[in-house]
Amino acid sequence: MNTGGSPPGGDGAYGGIGPEPSPVMRRGRRAWSSAALTAHTLTGPGDERLLEEVRDRAAAVNGRLSGADLAGAVRSSGVAVGSGSAQRAVRRLQEDLHGLGPLQGLADEPGTTDVLVDGGGTVWVDGPGGLRPAGIRLADPEEVRALAVRLAAAGGRRLDDAVPFADVVLGRYRIHAVLPPVSTGGPLVSVRVRHHRAMALEEALPDGAADAWFGPLRAIVAARLNFLVSGGTGSGKTTLLGAMLSAADPAERLLLVEDAQELVPEHPHVVGIQCRTGNIEGAGQVTLTDLVRQALRMRPDRLVVGECRGAEVREFLGAMNTGHDGAGGTIHASSAGAVPARLAAMGALAGMGPEAVALQAASALDVVVHMARTGGRRMPVEIGRVVQGADAAGTGPGHGAGPDYGPEPGHGPGQGQGPGQGQGPGGRGLGVVTVARRSPDGRLEMGPAAGWFRQALAERSVPPPW
């Protein structure tokens, strides 16, 4: 499946981006050609001719410049092919125009999930070992800006003083760029790397966690429970969601709704639709809310929203309440217990009150799987049952959003953590009661909702994992 552009080749290129280069693309290519060449201090008598020739060819050629294009530019400029400056310029330009430029090698490293460029040119890499300095540096803010403009233009987006931020997808890269004065320390570039290789569920779980978590996660999918994967940024939510979808019945039709394509489940029948940003006037925008509505007309066996973050939660919960079992998605939350508050906030964006959100979510959602970084590894740390009303005020560990009715102190306005708290007065709101969680020593501990989980699986003829 490929809904986000042509996939990269072995050299990291992201391929063509459309039948004709737009004026925005042409401006971006010219700007980047100039920056890439001048970064190599072209000062010879023929260097200006070479610079102008490559500018013109970069603006005219759609997609990547081939070696023949670059050689032709050198010949047309009159610069001797054997000259050192021309050879260096062509080699660097070819690298820069064929992907992420100086960031390409970092993005190609196994396990890299993010490449980040700060305003002064400092580069950081996030991966299995956590966030670390990359050991390379872009020359100055102007080079960072030129890179940002070129990448935005390659995705058909404008990036300049009038439109100081852009979000584009180029093959397996999701790129966000911000220019001053919105970014105070200089231009910023953030690259999220999507790995095309699909993962089976057991592969997505780190060593030492697979034995404990594979069974219950596989059971959630087999029983067609509706679930959300929660976690912070970079906790592995999308990776786990894709791996869980890989465990779905091959006879099912999976319909993925995403802001930008990131999910690549190992499954024979996957259909994806993604958002589209509007132009500078806002025309042509396609939102997640629009896509969820369209997805319901496409006969999904499983409806999946890559990331729930706004008003689309109303349509998503509504779909789960109208017979679309086995639905899944991700949500940003600091804990499983914080999910009810996040859902309430998103429901408010759709004009839903807290009680309406609680009613919809309690009947639509079955479980929350929470992801976190533990010891430098991304892994599940809790499975919780989504409950409402009297169930939200049960006995034993549980979480909820609302006044703190439990014996433990609250954490901020409207947040409480104690036995089975709910949201709002009288426990009428939404809560999460633990099914199982990771203990401090790494073992899997059963929670008060473990019995409900076993019963829910048995009702669907799925053998319990414990």
From TrEMBL:
Residue segments, region Disordered: 1-26, 390-451
Protein name: Pilus assembly protein CpaF
GO molecular function: ATP hydrolysis activity
Domain of life: Bacteria
Species assigned in the record: Zafaria cholistanensis
InterPro entries for this protein: P-loop_NTPase, T2SS/T4SS_dom, T4SS_GSP_E_ATPase, TadA-like_ATPase
Family statement drawn from the similarity comment of this UniProt entry: Belongs to the GSP E family.
Domain Bacterial type II secretion system protein E: 181-373
Gly residues bias locations: 1-18, 395-430
